[in-house]
Write a structure and sequence with these properties.
Strand 1 and strand 2 form a beta hairpin. Helix 1 crosses helix 3 and helix 1 crosses helix 14. The strands form 2 sheets. Strands 9-8-7-6-10-11-12 form a 7-stranded mixed sheet, sandwiched between helices. It has a 5-stranded mixed sheet with strand order 1-2-4-3-5. It has 14 helices and 12 strands. It is an alpha/beta fold. Bound molecules: nicotinamide-adenine-dinucleotide.
Length: 424
């Protein structure tokens, strides 16, 4: 687990919340929501804070603070990550849980939205203390989670190993096997195939559907990708394997470009050997800023928030921007892309492949029936393409603001479920 980026990650999803909330304010007025509807959307169904003791390696007891918010569960059990972060606040968890409810509604999986975590810097804990904090938190919230109540998953600074401790603690409390209580597990303990690259692949399925709509030929387009971590590297690898021409990639140290296309497998080896994509043989080094405005048809931000902004949006040459990162585009840049007729596929749709495969994991656990990789991919493709088409068909005929359309669709779906239940 890499801890050093924690400031960045926290800033990224603060930007995500800021952007989503300002977009939602416009949407609420566009949709002409009633006061009842606004009240219902404004309040999480359940939000709580727990305090729990943990015996540290020194033998002393230390109290920890944990939060969990189940924002909405009208469409199904709440679903959302658990993070460990020293600056975690209940308010921030509330915003993130609402965004989870929207994301699940956009891709139409039968989940509501939640989020939670512990106020702690995991860097300061030993492995044993990390395990005891995880188990202590789960004991404290055990009555409020479960396969049909609220299903946690990994998030910032929580990983597969922590999901196993969650599973084990919950099963000990209940005295039976209940793998569907948590997703993001290793395959040996009920995890799903294809989960590790599902965010990138889900985004690519959506991109291919967008290209089909725009009559773009796979063998004629060039692609630039910012970020070469879990999401960016997998996206580059999959696109390269599918025969696309990836002309530029970058990481925190800088980028590389080759107009004829990069050999991504060789770039991956180079990164493993040198720690960066920079100085890859047969390519030219560029800055991250140059990557964003380079000659390409498709631009994929897969690193940080706020990368496409009023300073560079006018210079972007791509026809399609696929937001695999969270909130990589500011509101100003969003407006500029709209004016320039650049199709922006928003994060809430583009990077939802991960939560879709989490849904498949939960479903496999409940049925005790484990799918081959092909089946996972087939169902992921179907879900993502349907979601793209749902969002796209909500757009204005000529000018499509997909972010707005995605949020509108999600809000409508949540309110419809509430109405069916008699809550409106
Ligand atoms: P990661 O930490 O594995 O990779 C981040 C990459 O960005 C690294 O290659 C890093 O070198 C690069 N980077 C850092 N600073 C940069 C800079 N200034 N310019 C260019 N590149 C820079 O993270 P990840 O899991 O790949 O996530 C990337 C983005 O995708 C984040 O916004 C994250 O919130 C979002 N996301 C990830 C997932 C997932 O399944 N991992 C799901 C949804 C959204």
């Amino acid at each position: 687990m890499e801890i050093k980026n924690h400031e960045r990650l926290h800033a990224d999803d603060r930007n995500l919340c800021k952007l989503a909330i300002s977009e939602l304010e416009d949407i609420y007025s566009d949709l002409g929501l009633s006061e009842e509807e606004l009240d219902l959307l404004d309040m999480p169904r359940r939000s709580f804070t727990v305090h729990f003791p943990v015996r540290m390696d020194s033998g002393k007891i230390r109290m920890f603070v944990g939060h969990r918010v189940q924002y909405n569960d009208a469409r199904g059990p709440a679903k959302g990550g658990i993070r460990f972060h020293p600056e975690l606040t209940l308010d921030h968890v509330k915003d993130l849980s609402f965004l989870m409810a929207l994301k699940c509604a956009v891709v139409n999986i039968p989940f509501g939205g939640s989020k939670g975590g512990v106020v702690v810097n995991p860097k300061e804990l030993s492995r044993n203390e990390l395990e005891q904090v995880t188990r202590g938190y789960i004991r404290a919230i055990a009555n409020h989670i479960g396969p049909f109540k609220d299903i946690p998953a990994p998030d910032v600074y929580t990983d597969e190993k922590i999901m196993v401790w969650i599973l084990d603690e919950y099963e000990r409390i209940n005295g039976e096997h209940i793998p569907s209580v948590v997703t993001g597990k290793p395959i040996e303990l009920g995890g799903s195939k294809a989960r590790s690259y599902s965010t990138s692949l889900g985004g690519i399925y959506v991109l291919e559907e967008a290209m089909r709509r725009m009559d773009m030929d796979k063998f004629e387009v060039s692609i630039a990708i910012q970020g070469f971590g879990n999401v960016g590297e997998n996206a580059a690898r999959i696109l390269h394997e599918k025969g696309y021409k990836v002309v530029a990639v970058s990481d925190s140290k800088g980028g590389i470009i080759n107009k004829e296309g990069l050999d991504i497998e060789a770039v991956m080896k180079h990164k493993t050997q040198t720690g960066s994509v920079v100085d890859f043989e047969g390519s030219q080094n560029i800055t991250n800023e140059q990557l964003l405005t380079c000659e390409c048809d498709i631009l994929i931000p897969a690193a940080l928030s706020d990368q496409l902004n009023s300073n560079n949006a006018h210079d972007v040459k791509a026809k399609v921007v696929l937001e695999l990162a969270n909130a990589p585009t500011t509101k100003e840049a969003d407006n500029i892309f709209f004016e320039k007729n650049i199709m922006l596929i928003p994060d809430v749709l583009a990077n939802a492949g991960g939560v879709v495969v989490s849904y498949f994991e939960w479903s496999q656990n409940l049925n005790n029936d484990y799918w081959e990789e092909d089946k996972v991919l087939e169902r992921l493709k179907k879900t993502m393409i349907t979601a793209f088409n749902d969002v796209y068909s909500h757009c204005d005929e000529k000018n499509c603001r997909m972010r707005r359309s995605a949020y509108q669709l999600a809000i409508r779906r949540i309110l419809h479920a509430e109405r069916l239940r008699g809550n409106l």
